[in-house]
Amino acid sequence: MPSRLRVPVGYLVGLLVLLVSHPSAASLAAGGALALTGEAARLWAAGHIDKTRALATGGPYAHTRNPLYLGSLVMAAGLAVAGASPWSALAVAAYFAAFYPSVMREEAAFLRARFPAEYEAWAARVPLFFPRLRPAGPRATAFAWERVRRNREWRTAAPLPMLAGVRWARGRQLP
Question: How is the chain split into domains, by residue range?
């Protein structure tokens, strides 16, 4: 799938997940905890990125080369768990399988071309997606809230309370 469709299709999948969900208090609590964990990972990662200016290798980038995408997956899994529907889980899994492998390949090719020596040294020590427990690689970047703001991570974080409210309201509806 073309990566330019990732965000619009993501909104459609999110709407589908909301429509097919059947949340309970327990599923909302478990899913909410997962979604917040995913957003925390995204915030941590966003605080290390200076897009196109430097290769992010510190913080979460010392554990995985794609912490933003890992955080997005954990957030989406949280939404699926909160929905307590196998259709939610299937929609999330299909979306990630359709878009993220190619997006990660495109990004790796871009970074390899932009920062050849640094990327090769980092990629040799840090896994593509599933994180290593102990940090590795050069760890040359440090977290800064200014980067979080500049990278507009609020666009991902802001909808979480709204989604939680919608999920809660759907869970309170009579059968």
Answer: 9-172
